[in-house]
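Hello K.,

You asked for the raw outputs rather than the summary table, so here they are, unedited. I folded two proteins back to back in the same session to keep the settings identical. This is the first:
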Amino acid sequence: MRELPRTITETAQRLRAREVSAAELADAFLDAARADPFNAWLCIEPAHARAQAGAADARLRAGGDAPVLTGVPWACKDIIGTKGIATTAASKILAGYKPVYSATVVERLDARGAVMLGKTNLDEFAMGSSNENSAFGPVRNPWDPTRVPGGSSGGSAAAVAAGQAVFGLGTDTGGSIRQPGALSGVVGMKPTYGRVPRYGVVAFASSLDQVGPLTNSVEDAAIVCEAIFGIDPHDATTIDRPIDVRRDLDAGVRGLRLGVPREYFSPTGVEPGVTAAIREAIAQFAKLGAEIVDVSLPSTDKGLAVYYIVQPSEASANLARYDGVRYGLRVPGRDLVDTYKKTRGAGFGPEVKRRMILGTYALSAGYYDAYYVKAQKVRTIIKREFDAVFERVDALVTPTSPTVAFPIGAKTNDPLQMYLNDVFTLPVNIAGLPGLSMPCGLSEGLPVGLQIIANSYQERMLFRVAAAFERATEHHQLRPMKAA
């Protein structure tokens, strides 16, 4: 077989032209995943993948209008439940756990004939920005294996960047799709909160979590979104809105107003190479006919504080279910309380424990009003500032991350510096908006991510702006040398 396809569109064309069968394609990608030098995968499932590939080939041979994802190999972040296949959330506390049902997003991809290769590594319970918090070791960046791929969806990002899967699914609570997308040089897209069902996804922070794609092109991200979007009776937070987000992919940006928030260029710690690449991207949009508008989101600097009160608070409530009684790890103790302590002490990693302690403290009597309630009030202010800006502009253009991929171990002993990696992404989650990161250049030979933000349920606008930039540039065609 010639070089493995990189995009959904190319894969679909080759399958329909009978250049390759879904079974052959699955075997080739399984071989690539097995040879993975980046620790991107927690488990590879050949029998499952081959069974799905066989069904895809039968569907394609039958003719008719098979979905575009039929036969396309993909990677599933191991926080998304898969029936009969281990789902660990990269934590020892879920050792031996195999769900009795699949997440809705997995069922929707199954229904469209996609071929799941296996489950990918992540920061434990999605708590991290570097994929160093996994109980199964860090993921390495295909652009430079001494550096992080971003987190928490680093395994899916690395697998897609390295050509081990055509697309991946991740989850994004404060930037966990977009940030690894940026650092690994792929497209990472977080939909509007409520667009994608969370049913069957291991809960982290329920008012912030959202599932989304990691891909090698903007169009691919839109294709996956159309497959997983939609209301779900199992998830009361889902919204029934139109899902045809590809309609305006070729419309361009001429006449659109693109806002540049000045606060996203002022924080200390933004690398000069990142700033330069983003400024060049903004200039490119101007050349394409967009009007560039200076805007202000004055509470941006409050986002980090809000996030690290709301998110740990919700996490402490969600993770209370891991008690060593019903499923997963059990470390017997003298009594029930001692069993809880020993199970959680052995099962949770340091970062998870840190956030559970923070959240429990913020929710405790005497501090609830001072911390959690106040954070929710500031959250409302942040959302209103975005609403006001979107009355003036069609989309926002910002950096995704203040830095390119940093060396493994560089920030593990400084939680605040690690948390600052998400300073540009977490306001989007706080406000429940859609955001997309895409490659916009290199700094020191490493990818820089451009973030595009749209108003709630305006994914069509988001993809329109991103597709225009992608067509006008060649950044998305760059590949990591280490993936060869």
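The second followed immediately with the same parameters:
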Amino acid sequence: MKSRVKWLDNMSFVGESASGHSVVMDGPPEAGGRDLGIRPMEMLLLGLGGCSSFDIVSMLKKGRQNITNCEVEISAQRADSEPKVFTQIHLHFIIEGNNLSDAKVARAIELSAEKYCSASIMLAKTAVVTHDYKVIQT
């Protein structure tokens, strides 16, 4: 897998993925940016949320669960000094569907965190990563 990040100006960059997609990254004005895009560390959290959600939706569909929505709210703490790595990350999943099995939702989240989500497993090397969930029957 390859990606590329190109400096635009000030503190703005464009990231290009191997699959042909692009995203603008920028810093806040106090760091020389113009606040034109997402912060790079925010992208790490979004990647984590996307990776784990992809796993969970896939597993629930394979388990014949009638899932209609999946959201994850992510909160994180960073170290106070450089390098300001994530030290704590919490993912709160909100899973909606018809006749969802609470046990299957819990198992999908557990499998994603412990076996399938590369982002979660990698970030857990420096941060305490926790999960919880809410099931909404529709």
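The two ends are 39 Å apart (CA to CA).

Happy to rerun anything if the numbers look odd on your end.

Regards,
P.
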